[in-house]
Amino acid sequence: MATPNSAASTPSANYGRKAQLTFTIFALAYIAAMLLCLRQWHSPQAWSRLDRFSGGYILSILWLLASLRFMRMASSNKESGRELAGQTFHPELFRWIKILAVCDLLAFVDYGHWHLCRAVENPALQTLGLVISVGGCLWLLWADYFLLVHFCAGLTNRKIIESGPCRVVRHPRYLALTISRVAFALILASIIAWLLFAFWMSIILRRIHREEPHLRKIFGTQYEAYAKRTPRLIPGIY
Questions:
Q1: Which of 91, 144, 227, 238 is most buried, most CB within 10 Å of its CB?
Q2: Cα separation of 6 and 23, whole Å?
């Protein structure tokens, strides 16, 4: 016979395992697709474009692993997981993420085969992109720590997070995504990646303008006061 604790934890545990498995499969399949886009199929040097830049970017995708941990922890409770993922105020986000993630593969094809704009392929800028990518991953891990502590406590008696990266910007996870998109465009030196950056930013800004009214509804004047002293995304700019 199931104990009270096991009976209570089974549905949420199953939900968390399912979300973790889905994300793991997607992450592995996506990395495989990146490699296939870089492969020179009719050349004796089949992996010549899997160089220190493209290979370094694939290795530096720590945000995938960080997101896996983030999803595993947050999705242990379905209600908290939905709120954290923004499905309560921006349900169409994940449709756009899937579409743009597929489009991102075109940048790998460009780097591996098309070279649509060779002028943007600069080793110094690509190296800078790798550094930015690692910095973005570290920022993401820092932000996720505070968000997980907040959401794992449940949705009752919620408080505004004003510590850690939330002292710097109101949306630290979206800043991490912005950093990762700049790094992606610099590393692959692809005009396609820069065009996709514009689309990603439009999604991020739309998300912010959906989320903030939601947070004002939950926290009221407390959020208004927090918003007045903390920038949305980029200190001194926005």
A1: 144
A2: 25
